[in-house]
Amino acid sequence: MRFRVNGKERTVPHALSIGAYLRELGVNPLAVAVECDGAIVAREAFDATDITEGARLEIVRMMGGGAEGGPYNRATLSGVCS
Fold first, then answer.
1. Which secondary-structure segment (H or E) carries 22?
2. H/E element holding 23?
3. Pair 44, 25: CB distance under 8 Å
4. 50 contact partners, CB below 8 Å, separation of at least 6
5. pLDDT of the chain along its 82 residues, tens only?
6. Mind listing the domains of the chain with CATH numbers?
7. Terminus-to-terminus CA distance in the chain, angstroms?
8. Whole-structure pTM value
9. Euclidean distance between CA atoms 82 and 71, whole angstroms
10. Which of 73, 46, 50 is nearest to 62 (CA)?
């Protein structure tokens, strides 16, 4: 089965859910946001949402950062599997 993740084509030998795909990647589902074909997928729906042939996923994770000793940390988004 073929689908795209963060703009890059991926191929897997079998159908799987978003939750299963994240686990295969070793990604903590609590640390990411996932969009599938333009719609945000709720974390509680990751295991119930199947990735379909030709699907387009965007997977991003929150990362803290900023200047050391600064008054605050700025959250940034970083692509996963890109």
1. helix 18-25
2. helix 18-25
3. no
4. 15, 16, 17, 18
5. 999 999 999 999 999 999 999 999 999 999 999 999 999 999 999 999 999 999 999 999 877 665 555 544 444 444 444 3
6. 2-65+73-79 (3.10.20.30)
7. 18
8. 0.76
9. 31
10. 73
